[in-house]
Amino acid sequence: MNIAEQIHLKLQLKESSEIEYKSAAGGFPKAEFWRSFSALANTNGGTIVLGVKEKNHKFTPDGLSKELVTKYRKQFWDDAHNKSCVNIPLLVESDIEEIKTDGGQYLLAFRIPRAQYNLRPIHLTLTPFGHTYKRRDEGDYLCTDDEIKQMYSDANNMRASADSRILRGYSVDDIDMLTLHQYRRAYDIKHENHPWTEVDDKQFLENIGAYRKDRATSTEGFTVAGMLMFGKSNSITDPECCQEFFPDYREHLIDDSRIRWTNRIYPDGTWEANLYQFFTRVLPLLQHALPVPFSLDNNQIRNNTTTAHVALREALANSIIHAAYTVRGNIVIDRYFDRIVLSNPGTMLVSMEEYYEGGHSVCRNPVIQKMFVFLGIGEKGGTGADVIAKGWKDNGWSIPTVEEKSNPDRIETCLKLGKNIKETTETPADTTEITTETPADTTETTTETPADTTETILEIISNNPKVTAKELASVCGITEDGVAYHIKKLKQRGRLIRIGGSRNGGEWKVVE
């Protein structure tokens, strides 16, 4: 048994465990050790083993004596409690283990846990900037200032979340009232006869956390969460709020390298690009990828949905809820024939093990999360991973994967679809021409079939006969002119009739 196998066996390490070997023949490798300590603690943890030389992936013991290993253990604790060396010791005695090899030589192993988000950054010396490391591939790399600032923002989340911050100089003029009233209608349907359905807009915004008063300072105003959910595009991207905000949905449904995407929803100036609008526009397009029937209620939440539809809804909500909006980068949702990939800036606030175990609810944007939960969207008990996994397992698909990316920090969720998805959702060959339902100044194209859009419109109208053209356009991801085109076709086919006028409380009726 070679030395690496002995170490894994004696420490009972998993095959996937991150392990770093360091030679200590010439003394305690202080600089190298603490760089790796910081990097592992700020990433996913791992084990540092002193007393092993590594060359060309071959490991050779240094030949350390028991006395020398005991000396190194003492030096570690002396350094660990010295703030000029590291800000937090992090380890306890049981995290350090002496190993006697089969050849009678000694090693010293340190189990470095992933530091909890409220303890990060783990940095060297008294200054975090320029002295904080993260693990990337097999190396230790200095963190950027932005990465360190985000760690501090996450660490302060327990006291005051970033999305609860009161914005200076904002007023009701910065709120898109169409979005707010769409949300309120959805809330009213979900909470019939609730007292909040009767209050005015300002009081409602205060009730859900979009507007608040700081008791300590008596300052009051709109919160970051309120502006992200309901704000106007220019108000959101003001430096006072979230300057880098740019939610992006992209479809890749043609096997042609000359076409970057076949449909795209992004802040192009034709709509107020806030989170609620983005969610309601993107969700129906994502759910078109599923080869199973579905129906919409008045709230644009599925009635009698399959677990796959629920899983996709939760995955999209999770990406929005857990994104870091104060750093560079943006939410990117990519739909392919064989998979859906959701990516958002930030790091995991819990370990991968805790994420998959469930029950560990730590949210980067708890106010935004609450706004979704009010509509019955998003899991607040740390069970979102279970819901997403169940939806895919029920359809016999691969369990969705979650991966942390670095430089910049991102969380990527990949939901692979079944083998026959392309056949069941692909646009027929005779309907793949570019549509003209996008604004004239937009160059994006779409391959969504007219039949898909028509059926979506019929489903929405069936559940909400008083729905407006603007609301239909929002949900379907097309313009109001596009809605008018489909309405005209439906009326010509005898599938849709109008009862009453638009000014006197008229409504639509679907003819089966």
From TrEMBL:
**Which residue stretches does the UniProt record annotate as biased composition, category Low complexity?**
426-450
SUPFAM superfamilies assigned: Winged helix' DNA-binding domain
Report domain Schlafen AlbA-2 positions: 15-141
Superkingdom assignment:
Bacteria
Q: Return the InterPro entries for the record.
A: RecG_C_sf, Schlafen_AlbA_2_dom, Schlafen_AlbA_2_dom_sf, WH-like_DNA-bd_sf, WH_DNA-bd_sf
- Enumerate the residue ranges of region (Disordered): 425-450
| Full protein name | DNA binding domain-containing protein
Origin species, per record, is Segatella copri
